[in-house]
Design a protein that fits this description.
alpha/beta, TIM Barrel, six-stranded parallel beta sheet, 10 helices, binds pyridoxal-5'-phosphate, PLP-binding_barrel, pyridoxal phosphate binding
């Protein structure tokens, strides 16, 4: 595991941000992509409100959160700032009611039932948001998401919904030190996106890559990388703790 340093002040945070941005630029130069195609989405789960305010001061205004109630509490505490809240983690359909009011984007749609609830609640709020389908590319039972073979069918079924638009696919790569295995997950998502895009041209984006693997993800076509620890420092607990229901 890499060592992610927790910044002790605003300058330190700024340095971490610029290091990540330099890494993005370097990898893009290496492979001939335009760094402007890649959105760096800071992931603020477990962080205190002050850290988010600091990141906002540095010019970031979209943040990824993976737990419903935590996201809601932060939205409420920071309503005075024009922040975009992006839910990147699993959402149980009985919790849609807590988030429909404020999330500006959702990266983990993985069932028709959830899609129905989301559409219904967004309609009540008179809101429309962009959505990504989460795909399980790693065959790990611990990961959420539809199987790759099911993604197109779910997108077909979602065409009836008016309040969200599917703009891309999202995945978490296998938790492995083996870069080949990690890359295979990202390739699976990209190939799937290419197939789906022939039928649904609006399905363009690839939300993939985190602190430990965003360079591989960018090489494989990521458009949205979700980065927490490389910016804000190591979290105390391992990821499966945050990804549990
Ligand atoms: C926590 C999390 C991330 C970011 O992970 P880091 O290791 O902090 O970069 C990305 N995606 C999801 C779904 C997460 O829950």
């Amino acid at each position: 595991m890499e060592h992610f340093v927790t910044p002790s002040n605003l300058i330190g945070l700024q340095q971490n941000f610029s290091e990540v941005q330099q890494q993005i630029t370097a990898i893009c130069q290496k492979i001939g992509r335009n760094p402007a195609e890649i959105r760096l989405l800071p992931v603020t789960k477990t962080l205190a409100i002050e850290k988010i305010e600091q990141a906002y001061q540095l010019g970031f205004c979209s943040f990824g959160e993976n737990k419903v109630l935590e996201a809601k509490a932060k939205y409420e505490a920071l309503q005075h700032l024009p922040i975009h809240w992006i839910l990147i983690g699993h959402l149980q359909s009985n919790k849609v009611k807590y988030v429909a009011k404020f999330i500006d984007e959702f990266h983990a749609l993985d069932s028709l039932k959830l899609a129905e609830k989301l559409n219904h609640r967004l309609l009540l709020e008179q809101r429309k948001i962009p959505v990504f389908i989460q795909v399980n590319t790693s065959n790990e039972h611990s990961k959420f998401g539809v199987e790759p073979e099911q993604a197109l069918a779910l997108i077909d079924q979602c065409q009836q919904f008016t309040q969200f638009k599917i703009i891309g696919l999202m995945t978490l790569a296998i938790h492995s030190q083996d870069a080949v295995e990690v890359r295979r997950c990202f390739q699976t998502l990209r190939v799937l996106r290419d197939q789906i895009q022939k039928i649904y041209p609006d399905v363009q984006r690839l939300s993939m890559g985190m602190s430990g693997d965003f360079e591989i993800a960018i090489e494989e076509g990521a458009t949205d990388i979700r980065v927490g620890q490389a910016i804000f420092g190591a979290r105390a607990l391992p990821d499966h703790y945050y990804w549990a229901e």
